[in-house]
Design goal:
The chain is of the alpha/beta class. It has a single domain, classed as Rossmann fold (3-Layer(aba) Sandwich). A 5-stranded parallel beta sheet has the order 3-2-1-4-5, sandwiched between helices. The longest helix has 25 residues. It is globular.
Length: about 150
């Protein structure tokens, strides 16, 4: 049904859940979809830090290196499942990740975005935001949101 599925990842459990769903949806073989695993390197966390001194160049390199490690790990998971996969690491600069995700969906010619959501509510949602919600609102293609199972007490 879908030929190219964009899968934004950030190393979180919800993102891992989105990746698992995308792998399951992609299927295998000639008729299967290709995953495009995306990591957006964003400088926004650096601005919100409390440190008095941050070497932004060094921190940016660390964030980019971490992003490459994340997408390579995801590509390995896809390959083990027999799913074709491409990886993309994009420096989103100061822009919110949601803007870069939507832009990359078009640039990579994806016809579905599959991503995890933290499912934040209330004050946490207001303060931390919801990239997933904004992607749903802004994307020109369907968006599948995957939420990790809630741990039972």
């Amino acid at each position: 049904m879908y030929s190219r599925i964009l899968v934004p990842i950030d190393g979180s459990e919800p993102a891992e859940c989105g990746l698992r769903q995308a792998i399951a949806m992609a299927g295998t073989g000639a008729g299967g979809a290709t995953l495009v695993v995306l990591h957006v390197v964003t400088q926004l966390p650096l601005l919100m830090g409390a440190a008095g001194y941050v070497n932004y160049g060094e921190m940016s390199e660390i964030l980019a290196r971490t992003g490459h490690e994340l997408v390579e790990k995801a590509a390995k998971q896809a390959a083990e499942a027999g799913v074709a996969c491409e990886t993309v690491v994009v420096d989103g600069g100061m822009s919110p990740a949601c803007d870069t995700i939507v832009e990359q969906a078009g640039r990579q010619r994806c016809d579905l975005i599959a991503m995890g959501t933290h499912g934040r509510r209330g004050l946490r949602r207001l303060t931390l935001g919801s990239d997933a919600e904004l992607v749903v609102r802004l994307a020109g293609v369907p968006v599948l949101l995957a939420k990790p199972p809630v741990a039972k007490a």
